[in-house]
Amino acid sequence: MTRSHEIDEQQLATLAAAGDTDAMKQIYCLYAGALTATAARYVVDREAVRDILHDSFVKVYASIGSFTSRGKGSLKAWIQRIVVNEALAWLKAENRLSTVSIDDDEAMDFAADDEPGVEGLDAPTLMGLIKKLPAGYRTVLNLYALEGKSHREIADLLGIAPDTSASQLHRAKLMLAKMINDELKLSH
Length: 188
Known about the structure:
Blueprint (H helix, E strand, L loop, with lengths): L8 H9 L3 H22 L3 H18 L10 H20 L10 H5 L14 H9 L3 H12 L4 H8 L3 H26 L1
């Protein structure tokens, strides 16, 4: 197998499916960092993130023979879906998807036009604020904003109604807006 900068994902997957441990190691080395970040967007507990990553790679190696390349980046996307599904399964198993309601008074303080800009925040600070959201809100926000899922798809994944998904997204945005405003006030 060639070790050029351009990786043939299908060839790498085929070798891994045949039990080539070098190919498996290469897949892990290529994607573990990004996949750890993906799991950490959903699950805050570091030990749980490690477990999710481990379980995900076990599933990846067990089913990699079914992978079919759809172009550059499709192997990472395929593995990322497995990681997201494992993170969601962990959240469900731990019963972490319950929601927290925002007081109506607090919600009224943040109209849609009051949404703060994030220009004053660096990415780690913003990600830290997102991690402080309740798990249900954070999960819906991630699935909607980062994974591009519709409310119907989110509802199917989480076993909730589409209206519940939309409501949780709205509340997540309100809570995040308040946290961003508070953070920006502290930094100025």
